[in-house]
TrEMBL record:
Residues 1-78 form the GST N-terminal domain. Pfam families: Glutaredoxin (PF00462). It comes from the Bacteria. SUPFAM superfamilies: Thioredoxin-like (SSF52833). This is NrdH-redoxin. PANTHER family: GLUTAREDOXIN, GLUTAREDOXIN-LIKE PROTEIN NRDH. Coiled coil: none annotated. GO terms for biological process: cell redox homeostasis. GO terms for molecular function: electron transfer activity.
């Protein structure tokens, strides 16, 4: 399943999400929304949120670092 995470460099929840993915060997694409207006607009159009992280997993979107929801979507027993 393709995983994309919209982040900012100083977001602690973004760091927690990336650590979670690394721990479970989940490959992901990171998009820094501070670097690109286009990326911010894309994130907002998908989530209707301006906060990070926004995590896209297949057709599912999770706003924030919700470990339980992410694990369920990815089929991880955490």
């Amino acid at each position: 399943m393709k995983v994309k995470i919209y982040t900012t460099p100083t977001c602690p929840y973004c760091q927690m999400a990336k650590t979670f993915f690394k721990k479970h060997k989940i490959e992901y694409e990171e998009v820094n929304v501070l670097d690109s207006l286009e990326a911010r607009e894309e994130m907002f159009s998908k989530s209707h949120q301006q906060s990070v992280p926004v995590i896209e997993m297949g057709d599912e979107i999770v706003v924030g670092f919700d470990r339980v929801a992410i694990a369920k979507i990815l089929g991880i027993k955490d």
